[in-house]
């Protein structure tokens, strides 16, 4: 992993995520790009808003540039003498968060985007939506969502949760996760939530074949499997996060249209709300 994008809107939750992401970058020796997207009032679909005058817009942009440089200085000031100090690039642009992040991802060939969960009230959520969920649907690469108050600690175990209904797709994501885990020397726990006791033996056999293939191809022995009996996926994963000595939860996510979201929010978005662990999201092809 070479480059990590840290998204901030200068809220406390986003600052905490930036600190987490920077410590991660120090640990794996990656470059850092701190990104702020200044929302343009004229783009917000609400009545009563008008376009900012050029003078006010330029003033806000300069204020944000000062603020983002303060964050950079704060992060660099916390590095111990002799320790790895990541190169830090600051980007402050006007536009939609998803577009600004997408452009930065391409420009700097980033491997990971880190963002904090949205902490605004109901009005704020209606106005600009949930930034983490917006990025979850728009991301083209791995997205790490950090909860408020989370302090970076060396990651020893990452749980990858899936229904294992699409083996080829799962393997593709797991190989990507292995690359991330290798940089941390972390274990990977393949977690499957099911209440199908009758087919448990068959499932264990299938997973043994998974592990053998992964071991042969990925040359990474620190991969394990656990079957958790529960009829509800989110309940099983919440139990795993709370009792499984797991430091991070990883899941694959495919964005869906509004109608699909209305009838059933994805497991990934549900776990983003339920789990207190950092959530590593791997986007799937949207076709």
CATH architecture heading of the largest domain: 3-Layer(aba) Sandwich
CATH topology of the largest domain: Rossmann fold
Largest sheet: 10 strands, mixed
CATH superfamily of the largest domain: HUPs
Shape: elongated
Distance between the termini: 27 Å
Give the uncertain stretches in residue-range form: 41-50, 121-129, 257-264
CATH class of the largest domain: Alpha Beta
Q: Give the neighbour order of strands across the main sheet.
A: 3-2-1-4-5-10-9-6-7-8
User: What number of domains?
Assistant: 2
Which strand-content bin applies to the residues? 15-25%
Account of the protein in words:
The protein is of the alpha/beta class and 287 residues long. The protein folds into two domains: 3-146, Rossmann fold; 157-278, Rossmann fold (3-Layer(aba) Sandwich). The chain is built from ten helices and ten strands. Strands 3-2-1-4-5-10-9-6-7-8 form a ten-stranded mixed sheet, sandwiched between helices. Helix 8 crosses helix 10. It is elongated. The two termini are 27 Å apart. Residues 41-50, 121-129 and 257-264 have low confidence and may be disordered.
């Amino acid at each position: 992993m070479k480059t990590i994008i840290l998204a901030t809107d200068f809220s406390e939750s986003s600052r905490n995520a930036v600190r987490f992401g920077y410590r991660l970058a120090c640990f794996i020796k990656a470059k850092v790009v701190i990104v702020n997207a200044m929302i343009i009032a004229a783009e917000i679909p609400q009545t009563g808003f008008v376009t900012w005058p050029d003078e006010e817009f330029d003033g806000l942009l300069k204020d944000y540039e000062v603020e983002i440089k303060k964050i950079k200085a704060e992060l660099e000031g916390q590095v111990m003498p002799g320790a790895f100090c990541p190169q830090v690039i600051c980007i402050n642009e006007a536009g939609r968060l998803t577009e600004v992040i997408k452009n930065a991802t391409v420009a700097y060939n980033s491997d990971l985007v880190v963002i904090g969960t949205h902490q605004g009230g109901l009005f704020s959520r209606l106005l600009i939506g949930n930034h983490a969920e917006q990025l979850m649907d728009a991301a083209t690469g791995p997205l790490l969502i950090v909860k408020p108050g989370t302090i970076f600690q060396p990651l020893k175990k990452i749980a990858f949760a899936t229904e294992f209904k699409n083996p080829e797709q799962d393997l593709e994501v797991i190989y990507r996760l292995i690359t991330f885990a290798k940089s941390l020397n972390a274990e990977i726990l393949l977690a499957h939530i099911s209440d199908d006791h009758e087919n448990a033996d068959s499932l264990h056999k299938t997973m043994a074949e998974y592990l053998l293939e992964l071991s042969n191809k990925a040359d990474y022995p620190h991969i394990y499997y656990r079957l958790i009996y529960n009829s509800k996926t989110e309940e099983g994963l919440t139990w795993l996060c709370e009792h499984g000595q797991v430091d991070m939860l990883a899941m694959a996510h495919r964005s869906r249209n509004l109608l699909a979201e209305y009838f059933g929010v994805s497991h990934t978005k549900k776990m983003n709300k339920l789990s207190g662990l950092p959530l590593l999201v791997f986007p799937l092809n949207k076709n």
